[in-house]
Specification:
alpha+beta; 3 helices; 2 strands
């Protein structure tokens, strides 16, 4: 099956991408969609659990939002595989883009927390080591 996809570039120019949607590709898109939905639900649950603490909510909220984006991307991949249309694929890629942005934010926040925790531990244990 051939389908055409119109994508937005710089929100002004459009281009058409044509590709053949084979049965193998459709099965792989469904598998990717299902796995993204499973991992999205797991991230939503873990994000909600991380949000229990006030300070940990700084990490929990981006995890929760990333899980929602990943779940929506998986749903769009599954729909694109079943509907054989390009609109679902475009939505899947847009949601996946949002997921990766949130993942980068989570990584930056986590590294910052680890650095602060390391400096805190050094400031507490270093003076006791020299006395």
């Amino acid at each position: 099956m051939n389908f055409n996809e119109t994508t937005m570039l710089d929100y002004k120019n459009t281009t058409t991408i044509s590709m053949e949607l084979t049965d193998c590709l459709r099965k792989r898109m469904r598998f990717i969609g299902i796995m993204q939905q499973i991992f999205g639900v797991l991230m939503i649950i873990s994000g909600a659990l991380i949000c229990v603490g006030i300070i940990s909510a700084i990490v929990g909220i981006p995890v929760l939002l990333a899980g929602i984006k990943l779940y929506k991307s998986g749903s769009a991949f599954s729909l694109a595989a079943m509907a054989k249309g390009g609109e679902g694929l475009s939505e899947a890629i847009n949601q996946l883009h949002g997921y990766w942005k949130m993942a980068m934010i989570i990584i930056i926040i986590s590294i910052s927390f680890y650095a602060l925790a390391f400096m805190f531990m050094v400031s507490i244990f270093l003076p006791t080591y020299y006395h």
